[in-house]
Write a structure and sequence with these properties.
This protein is about 70% helix and about 0% strand. With about 500 residues, the protein is mostly helical. About 50% of the residues are buried.
């Protein structure tokens, strides 16, 4: 009974384990502190109704993320495989929920998160040159071009080397902490100087609806998103049983403190209404306070958002790779580069989908953020259900890190609220998200379960996979991979892995 998960613990990691504790902390902090604190703050203030309630939501969001992160540490140390929720659903519920997660995350969630982060980066890099909202259409076009270019750079780095990706993450994490430190010190100085009007009657404001609180939490939790990055890339961690919980325990409180302090700093320079209207808060604050040196802040914010995009690409590529390794996505995504050991096809797919999501005129940060949060918290809630189910179904399985049972129960109730509440405000948008999920059920039964697909399509995928494998010097690691038409891939593997 106690050895039910023995095969999972003995399973050899198929990517090189290169990420140590410092890299883990940098990946968490670097992915979390990205566009959110600089772009989603206005969304929190719009829906919170008052500065006091906004600060409470930022604090509560940090506490909620800390609690759910501890749940994920238990799952990640019990099931030390990359893929995060995908691996957990596979063990707890079987193929269909795992496929729906990989389908939704690979084709929508991860590319959308990447697109939203880099669109926010493009906004920050162009706002200083279009500060008075002149030529707004031209600014949007230029910001999308910049976002597309940066997306290509981030994906290239992740394709070239895991070590490059983690080392760059450390540098960008340092840059964003410097930015936050500058803004927080400015806030403290101004508070001492008496700029505290927004803190008087801090909870005075218009009445708010329950759905508005849900959207306010969406803004706050978006800024914290990325806390599960390590669970998606567990096989890349040198010592997951030690480094995963330590990185969470160090990283989450650090980020929470930064977020609460920087929002307080905003309130020493800007009014609540100004914060709600601004789409580039740090730039607005810098122009008020730093004079000719204000141009430095958008540069540091760009580093921050690119760092978050780097972490998102790192984890998103691993998810597609793991799902393809288990026959839930096209086999071409299950290959690694022979020398660099990076999942180049999976990363390339994430890049292409993110580029597509940047194209529509309606592609803006807030819209993409709300859709992403709705889907993400359905997935997070289901992971908590998986944790509780495995506690009941397999109580004697070895758990290197085990949390108090009340924590996942509380997180589950809050996840349900975050999914249900926005239906009152935007039922149509939430329904669209559910329709995207439901298409995955059809795809699963047609392509995965029963393979009701014409033979010529399977042959096309076989030939395409061979071509990509030969051209890009790729291989299938540690597994005998069957083709779509049951032909043998082993000859190709031996020929290309030099």
């Amino acid at each position: 009974m106690g050895n039910e998960y023995e095969p999972l613990h003995q399973k050899k990691a198929e990517t090189k384990q290169k990420v140590g504790l410092l890299g883990c902390i940098s990946l968490i902090v670097g992915t979390m502190i990205g566009s959110g604190i600089f772009a989603s703050t206005s969304n929190v203030f719009i829906n919170a109704g008052s500065p006091g309630m906004a600060l409470m939501i930022w604090t509560a969001s940090g506490i909620l993320v800390a609690l759910i992160s501890l749940c994920y540490v238990e799952m990640g140390t019990m099931i030390p495989l990359s893929g995060g929720e995908y691996s957990y659903y596979s063990e707890a519920f079987g193929e269909l929920p795992a496929f729906l997660f990989s389908y939704t995350s690979t084709l929508f969630l991860k590319p959308a998160q990447l697109a939203a982060i880099l669109l926010a980066c493009g906004d920050y890099m162009t706002v200083p040159f279009f500060y008075n909202d002149c030529n707004i259409e031209e600014r949007i076009m230029i910001s999308k071009i910049l976002a597309s270019f940066l997306l290509g750079v981030v994906i290239f780095i992740n394709c070239v080397s895991v070590r490059w990706a983690t080392n760059i993450q450390i540098v960008f994490t340092a840059a964003k902490l410097i930015t936050i430190t500058i803004l927080v010190i400015t806030g403290i100085v101004r508070l001492v100087q008496g700029f505290d009007n927004e803190f008087k009657n801090a909870f005075t404001g218009p009445d708010i609806k329950i759905s508005s609180i849900g959207y306010a939490f969406y803004g706050g939790l978006w800024a914290y998103d990325g806390w599960n990055t390590l669970n998606l890339a567990t096989e890349d961690i040198k010592n997951p049983n030690r480094d995963l919980p330590l990185a969470i325990i160090i990283g989450i409180p650090l980020v929470t403190g930064c977020y609460v302090l920087i929002n307080a700093a905003y309130l020493t320079v800007l009014t609540s209404s100004e914060i709600a209207r601004s789409n580039a808060l740090a730039v607005t604050m810098a122009n008020r306070v730093y004079g000719k040196y204000a141009f430095l802040i958008p540069i540091f914010v760009a580093f921050s958002t690119v760092g978050a995009a780097n972490g998102t690409a790192f984890s998103g590529g691993r998810l597609a790779y793991v799902a393809a390794r288990n026959n839930h996505l096209p086999k071409v995504l299950a290959m690694l580069h022979c020398e660099k050991q990076t999942p180049i096809p999976a990363l390339t797919l994430t890049c292409i989908l993110a580029w597509i999501m940047m194209i529509p005129d309606s592609s803006n940060f807030t819209t993409v953020m709300n859709y992403c949060n709705f889907v993400a918290w359905m997935m997070y809630g289901l992971t908590i259900v998986a944790l509780l189910w495995l506690r009941f179904k397999r109580p004697n399985v070895k758990r290197p890190f085990k949390i108090f049972i009340g924590i996942p129960i509380f997180v589950l109730f809050f996840s349900v609220y975050l999914v249900v509440a926005p239906f009152y405000e935007n039922p149509l948008g939430s329904t669209y998200c559910l329709l995207v999920l439901s298409t995955g059920i059809l795809v699963y039964f047609l392509f995965i379960k029963y393979r009701i697909v014409p033979h010529f399509i399977m042959e096309f995928f076989d030939k395409f996979t061979r071509m990509v494998q030969m051209l890009a010097n790729l291989y299938f690691p540690n597994t005998v991979v069957e083709s779509y038409t049951q032909s043998n891939y082993e000859t190709i593997i031996e020929d290309t892995k030099i």
